[in-house]
Amino acid sequence: MTVDELRLHFSLQPLRHAIVSAPLKNRVREAAVLMALEELNGELQLILTTRPTHLKAHPGQVSFPGGKVESSDLSPTHTAFREAEEEIGLRSENLELLGQFPTHRTFTGFEITPVLALVKNPFETRIDPGEVAECFRVPLHFFMQDKHRHIRQFQRQGHSYHVVFIPWEGRLIWGATAAMIDLLCRHLKDGGAI
Fold first, then answer.
1. For residue 14, with 0-12 CB atoms within 10 Å meaning exposed, 13-18 middle and 19 or more buried, which class applies?
2. 93-107: average pLDDT
3. How wide is the angle at C-alpha 105 spanned by C-alphas 100 and 107, nearest 5°?
4. Residue 72: how many CB atoms within 10 A of its CB?
5. Nearest 5°: CA angle at 59, between 148 and 163?
6. Neighbouring residues of 71: CB distance < 8 A, sequence distance ≥ 6
7. Residue 129, exposed/middle/buried by CB under 10 A (0-12, 13-18, 19+)?
8. CA 86, CA 132: separation in Å to the nearest integer?
9. d(CA 181, CA 144)
10. Distance between CA atoms of residues 136 and 32, nearest Å
11. Residue among 167, 93, 118 at smallest CA distance from 1
12. Whether the model pTM is above 0.70
């Protein structure tokens, strides 16, 4: 898939899938993440990070750049763009907004808005070690192959939930991040772009 095909797809294709989420809680903390796609050597790559092990929330997990909505943030897009610059040095003026997916609720009490954008130009990754252990890229075509996205059913508090798992080069992408990747892939496939 090329950058132009991705742009066209998101401007014309309505979302036909729901994202699997945890049950609604009384108190949720709003957050936003950036699903940034960068074209490298003619191939779209999804930018991911690994959280440091010293963090209280989700230590060592693979995630997208992002974080809690601050009172000064104007929108979930503003939150995702601000966090990406703070965490990995990806500046907002180097991003082309494609859109947002529906919010995803987690069992840890977050309601996360996934924001999808294209990286306009190559950038030098600058990691904030307080928030990110590493930044890496995965080819979109890898995620698009159904055989790489595994869905398992789990029971929690008497309810059944689907959890997505994606192994990648010794890492395990799972939970909210994997659910958002799965939604992106299902959305792209249903539009006939792949």
1. exposed
2. 88
3. 155
4. 8
5. 35
6. none
7. exposed
8. 10
9. 9
10. 19
11. 118
12. yes
H/E segment holding residue 186:
helix 175-190
Tokens of 130: 């307080």
pLDDT at 19: 58
* CA proximity to 184, closest of 46, 4, 22: 46
User: What is the number of other CB atoms lying within 10 angstroms of the CB of residue 106?
Assistant: 19
Phi, psi (deg, nearest 5) at residue 82: -60, -45
pLDDT in tens, 119-166: 999 999 999 998 899 999 999 999 999 899 998 877 767 777 778 899
- The beta strand positions in 20-126, using DSSP E, are 29-40, 43-50, 62-63, 66-68, 95-100, 104-105, 110-119
Measure the CA–CA gap between 147 and 149, rounded to whole angstroms.
Answer: 6
**177 in Cβ contact with 163 (< 8 Å):** no
Amino acid code (one letter) for 64: F
d(CA 36, CA 119) in angstroms, rounded, equals 6
φ, ψ of residue 137 to 5 degrees: the values are -125, 145
Mean pLDDT value across the chain: 85
Retrieve residue 82's tokens.
């601000």
Asked if residue 179 lies in contact with residue 164, where contact means CB atoms within 8 angstroms, the answer is yes
Give alpha helix (H) positions in the chain: 3-12, 76-88, 140-144, 175-190
What is the Cα Rg of the chain in Å?
16
Q: Name the one residue in this structure whose structure tokens are 């009172």.
A: 71
